[in-house]
């Protein structure tokens, strides 16, 4: 997390982005895939909770994205 914070500071950003973490662990393919899968499911859950949407299409899209790699 310290390295990610330093990277975001070099970019001039206030917050750590997912790209900062991916850049740090880029040599470990398994970790990168797990992080991307986690982030895609987090997005699915967020979209499913939004009022007015059933979220069914988002689940299918996230599963398709997670399978690529």
Amount of beta strand: under 5%
Please report the distance between the alpha carbons of the first and last residues.
Answer: 25 Å
Overall mean pLDDT score?
81
**Biggest β-sheet description:** none
Describe the structure.
There is one protein chain. With 69 residues, the chain is an all-alpha fold. It has one domain. The protein is 72% helix and 0% strand. The radius of gyration is 15 Å and the shape is flat. The model has no long low-confidence stretch (mean pLDDT 81).
Quick recap:
The protein is built from 4 helices and no strands. The protein has helices at 2-11, 18-24, 29-49, 56-67.
List the helices and strands and how they pair.
Blueprint: H1 2-11, H2 18-24, H3 29-49, H4 56-67
Helix pairs in contact: 3-4
Keywords:
mainly alpha, 69 residues, single chain, 72% helix
